[in-house]
Amino acid sequence: MKIKLLELAHARSGDKGDTANVGIIAYKPEYYPFLKEVLTPERVKKHFEGICYGKVERFELPNLDALNFLLHQALGGGGTQTLRHDAQGKTFSTALLRMEVDVPEDLARKWGFHKS
Amino acid sequence: MKEKIRIASGQGFWGDRVDAPIDQVRKGPIDYLVMDYLAEVTMSIMQKQKMRDLNQGYARDIIPLMKQILPDLMEKNVKVITNAGGVNPFACRNALFEIAEKMGIKGLKIGVVYGDNIIEKIDEFLETGTLLKHMESGEKLSEVRDRLYSANVYFGAGPVVEALQQGAQIIITGRVTDTGLTLAPMIHEFGWKFDEYDKLAAGIIAGHIIECGAQVTGGNFLAGWKEVPDMARIGFPIIEAFPDGNFCVTKHENTGGLVDLRTVKEQLLYELGDPTDYITPDVVADFTSIRLSQEGKNKVRVSSVKGKPATDCYKVSISYSDGWTCIGRLTYAWPEALEKAQKADEVIRQRIQDLGLEFEEIFTEYLGINGCHGPLSHPVKDPNEVILEIGVRGSNYKHLEQFSREMIPLVLCGPPTVTGFAAGRPRPKEVVAFWPALMRKDLVTPQVDVKSI
Questions:
Q1: Which domain holds residue B19?
Q2: Cβ B376 vs Cβ A5: under 8 Å
Q3: What value of ipTM does the predicted structure carry?
Q4: Pairwise CA distance, residues B235 & B262, whole Å
Q5: Considering only residues 17 to 46 of chain A, which have any Cβ-Cβ distance to chain B shorter than 8 Å?
Q6: CA of B303: which chain A residue's CA is closest?
Q7: The domain containing residue A59 runs over which residues?
Q8: Closest Cα in chain B, distance from residue A105 (Å)
Q9: Does residue A114 form part of some domain?
Q10: What is this structure's pTM?
Q11: Mean pLDDT for back-to-back runs of 10 residues, chain B (453 residues)
Q12: What do you get for the CA distance between the two ends of chain B, in Å?
């Protein structure tokens, strides 16, 4: 079943130079292993095509049911030189949560998601 | 030794809510008020102010604030730790002493932490082999030497602890890390040693949690922003710290906002890099060791934090002039708002070409369509209005100046139903870029000076 990440996780994003960080937190601990499996750095890099021109790094924080992504070369030069409206990547959090993921039917049912 | 201290955050950045620190002092008991005023760009602004006037170069907002809260601070014995000193902490102290004297306050002890400002010593460092290479690109600082504005070493909690030990009630610092401001009172009150890494790391994580003010008490809270009570009176965060390194995140009772596992988790992840390697001048903290539990209403307990020894380098933040940008906006109305904005963009780009203006980058976004999420945005059908935003960046000021005169004429020369130009033409803005570097800790020594009236 296709489910938007927005329904499985919340997030916050920020900047360090030309690198944006997006921290994503599973709403329920049981979602975390699934998120860890599907949200590979490659997939996130592909998702941010046209925004992120460098590599994507991923770090795990199982204690917070969270993953932290670093998106390099993603802020048009960053800080004070960028021409982007979202100069500091403040809205990258929900940009990532736009992603649709394929949740196996049995898992989706267990989590209480129903086909609309 | 105290069994518990309460450390309140009064400011998440220079320009944050001005009454937040007043509420922190008056709406409940606290022992320390910490205020972070320094973003990277702030130091260069302050350096420019100091070049114009030797009595400037610090966060001036602190003076009217102190006028209001000094009597409260004296009466309740609340200590203030802030990096409001910027590039001129002594001028900041002089101004504070001046208002304290006018108010008839006696026995006020103010400490200054300085020595972080190395702009005058840059050549000496470069000549003696400290190249201050760019942390990411590896370039030598000499490439931009003639365009520098400011250079500051990030100090940790050490010199602040020293000032507290000398009895300072207010401590004004230059570039001390946000996290160090919060850690310092814990070291001072609980007698922590500089090799008790787990405790130091806990103090650093407490600092990270409150350094952005209300961003942990319900501000910018994605998971539940609609449930945040009384956002207009949002309470700023307070750390209740214990001698064993555990602490709670909370806020005053009679304030808006909320503190729960979700708000704390969101803030923990803010501007985070490698969570196992959170480097500060004091200690390296491991965010994967953190345990969180909801202790009560608006109270989250943080425990079991682990840390390891700090590195032998300080981070240096250097700013330099790096050309100009100019960003112009026009609003196009229904019908065909996006098509009109796109046509205007085409016209501007043609004008840039015809006039022979040279830029390193020309960038267009359509606010209401793709201004935040760029190519990830979903299509919007028949929008009521679209804001065209065109930005250019370059090193030739004259070309930016010419570009800035090209936007408004579109009102009469371009596509129809355009508005939103009342503020006049956009102005070119200087780019102050950052040069992060590392330097050995033994090359610079934090200084402390405590004085009273």
A1: 5-116+154-311
A2: no
A3: 0.98
A4: 17
A5: 17, 21, 23-25, 27
A6: A63
A7: 2-109
A8: 25
A9: no
A10: 0.96
A11: 96 92 98 92 87 94 96 97 97 98 96 96 94 92 93 97 98 97 98 97 98 98 98 98 98 98 98 98 98 98 98 95 96 98 98 98 98 97 97 98 95 96 90 93 97 93
A12: 28
